[in-house]
Design goal:
Layout lengths: L1 H11 L2 H8 L13 H16 L1 H13 L3 H26 L1 H20 L2 H15 L4
């Protein structure tokens, strides 16, 4: 536990973590009504999982059944690449701000669990620095 606490203290001193702690990062952004772009992005993310690995396995099975290994050698990576592009576009459409909010919240919660009351000192230091305009 000592190593985990020491590691958490180290990361808690980084600007990203200090900001997440000081601003009390939460998930309130998820209460907004989803935009059509967001819905399409989430559907694209789901679709990327559906066409990803299952399509590669299907392509490999077809290449074995047809006794044409090039179908699997070329088709498998090609379909997987397409699913990766669909995934990335889906994330962009769903909104990077939601991913950022989720990661900031996870960071704050994990550090609070590991460091306990010690986290308040770190959050207070970040707010004091922001108020005085000083930086380390």
């Amino acid at each position: 536990m000592h190593i985990m606490k020491k590691t958490a203290r180290y990361f808690a001193q980084k600007n990203y973590c200090k900001t997440a702690i000081a601003t009390r990062a939460d998930l309130s952004i998820f209460q907004e009504k989803p935009t059509p772009s967001m819905v399409i992005g989430i559907l694209m993310i789901f679709l990327s999982y559906v066409i990803g690995l299952p399509a590669v396995v299907f392509m490999a099975a077809v290449s074995m059944w047809a006794k044409k290994p090039l179908i699997g050698i070329i088709g498998g990576p090609l379909i997987y690449g397409i699913s990766t592009v669909v995934f990335i576009v889906g994330i962009k459409m769903a909104g990077a701000k939601h991913i950022k909010a989720l990661f900031a919240w996870i960071t704050r919660v994990l550090l609070e669990k590991i460091l306990g009351d010690e986290i308040n000192k770190i959050g207070d230091m970040k707010q004091e620095t922001a108020e005085t305009g000083e930086s380390k």
